[in-house]
Amino acid sequence: MKMTLGAHFLRCSARNVLSVPGCKTVNIRGHRRQHWTTFRNITSTTTGGKTAFLLTLPTLSYLSLEAYKKVQSDAVVHALEKAEEVVEQADYLYSCGETEKLYQLLLQYKDSDDAEFLWRLARASRDVSLLAHIAANEKKRLTYEAFEYTKKALEKNDACFAAHKWFAVCLSDIGDYEGVKVKIGNSYIIKKHLERAIELNPKDATSIHILGYWCFAFAELAWYQRKVAAMIFASPPTATYEEALAFFLKAEEVDPNFYSMNLLMLGKTYLAMKDTEKAVHWLSKAKEYPPHTEEDKQVHKEALDLLRKIGA
């Protein structure tokens, strides 16, 4: 399986565990609802965007004003409840692997000012682009579309860790269309956003895993690739297997057995570091991971092949 930063399906998530009948249990970590952002946006909508509207009302009796304020308050509460319902429905569809249904649901909110909708839409757009039946031109369109949603999510809420994480992933994806120079240059930006995502939510194992993957990708660059990178940049990105290992282990510490790819990468990193005993341990765990997705099946196959190769 060829290693590129954005190549494998990455689960972005939250602290709650969502268990749905007929679906596999999925960890949905750290998706703190941005209630204040939603409240601000809805208030702006219900008052026509004029935040000082109440200050310029015609003379009203106290009771009339109180009634008006109650109507406004009820509208805000209703809208908040509706937003919460949509997010829960979106997470339900994600847990069941209903990729295209999820995309169509969230596409209705593409003009939203809520980062919680936007990063989920970015993830859904990217997931659709990875489906086997998607044509190359449509895949490219969806890839760039996903990136635009992550940009907007960050503009609306720079404190949303998931927006930073998916910005990094989607920026890596568009690098496949932009050429080597752009892709290497974007690597610095990708790392910065992954570090910011982890700073905002240290308990999100997938952000930590992706940063480990970033380190592994640069640690395994062949000498001629490093030479090309050095010709393009005075100081190209560098990393070591030791750095990658630290992130993969940390991800496992934060959320044990959360992702088959993290187990595989631990095995591959130990192999690269010539520690066969520990490599066998983690590759065996990757092989035994219950395969829920196509990626899990690929991980199982690669782990099995590597174990056979080293005679384990």
TrEMBL record:
Keywords: Cytoplasm, Cytoskeleton, Repeat, TPR repeat
Summary of subunit composition and partner proteins: Interacts with microtubules.
One annotated Gene Ontology cellular component of this protein: mitotic spindle pole
Main subcellular location: cytoplasm
Compartment(s) of residence: Cytoplasm, Cytoskeleton
Homology family: Belongs to the RMDN family.
This protein's name: Regulator of microtubule dynamics protein 1
Gene Ontology MF: a single term: microtubule binding
TPR repeat ranges per the UniProt record: 260-293
